[in-house]
Design goal:
The protein is α/β, with parallel strands linked by helices. The protein has eight helices and ten strands. About 40% of the residues lie in helices and about 20% in strands. Strands 1, 2, 3, 4, 5, 6, 9 and 10 form an eight-stranded parallel sheet that branches.
Length: about 250
């Protein structure tokens, strides 16, 4: 590890009158905000509001692109024509960029959400479609799982691949995320998440659910904002990293 680590979180995932997580408080802790762009969650007002809050705090704004699946929160795989998927990725980035500009900031990177994120680990056509949609918008970095087809497609498209790790998700021995349908999909104890962040920063390692030690060279660490106690967990993770001499700063 380089001595610096970005902290990213999914933000703006409510819709209309529904709110998910404490975005305002979380933006005081993280360095990069993955803003929902209205397809799996979020709406125009939440996008603009979150961009304004991020701009006030100097937090990098990223487009959290997903399947068009509000009912399923973007956590259901959808088989799509690659051209349509690329266009919908482009559409979402453009919508967020309009809100970001109105708030005095800009979209700095892209990260797929939920089922799309997991699909692009192995699904070559969808990985290439996401990369194509980003490339059509411009030269933005893309966050993804190390070793994924997504990061390979991003690099092939001439974009910057950014490997990330997850502070609060279970890992399989193969280095992929444990499906959310399993009881070991999430780390719920704050102490465990703090310990994982510290080990990642100091040794570049993450322990899988079966005890396998995985080598992970990540520039960003994701903390989910919709889990109970997410803000306190994020604060303790950041405090632990900083006390260990790790610079917590945006990668973009």
């Amino acid at each position: 590890m380089s001595g610096a680590l970005d902290l990213n979180a999914d933000i703006g995932e409510g819709f209309g009158q529904w709110r998910v997580g404490d975005d305002y408080a979380l933006l005081e802790v993280i360095t990069s905000a993955n803003v929902a762009c209205g397809f799996h969650a979020g709406d125009a007002s939440s996008m603009r509001r979150v961009c304004e809050w991020a701009a006030e705090r100097g937090v990098a704004v990223g487009a959290q692109v997903g399947y068009r699946d509000l009912a399923g929160f973007g956590r259901r795989f959808i088989e799509m024509d690659p051209t349509q998927l690329a266009d919908e990725v482009l559409y979402q980035i453009g919508a967020l960029q309009a809100c970001a500009r109105a708030a005095g900031t800009t979209v700095s990177y892209v990260k797929p959400h939920g089922a799309l994120y997991n699909a692009t680990v192995h699904h070559i056509a969808q990985a290439e479609a996401v990369a194509s949609g980003v490339r059509a918008f411009g030269a933005l970095p893309v966050l993804g799982l190390p070793g994924s087809q997504l990061l390979a497609a991003v690099e092939k498209a001439g974009l910057e691949p950014v490997a990330e790790a997850f502070g609060d998700r279970g890992y399989t021995p193969e280095g992929t995320l444990v499906p959310r349908s399993r009881p070991d999909a999430m780390l719920t104890r704050t102490a465990d998440v703090v310990d994982r962040a510290a080990r990642l920063a100091s040794a570049g390692e993450i322990v899988a659910v079966d005890g396998t030690v995985l080598r992970v060279d990540a520039r960003s660490l994701c903390l989910h904002g919709d889990t109970p106690g997410a803000v306190d967990m994020a604060r303790r993770v950041r405090a632990g990293l900083e006390s260990a001499g790790v610079r917590v700063e945006a990668f973009a």
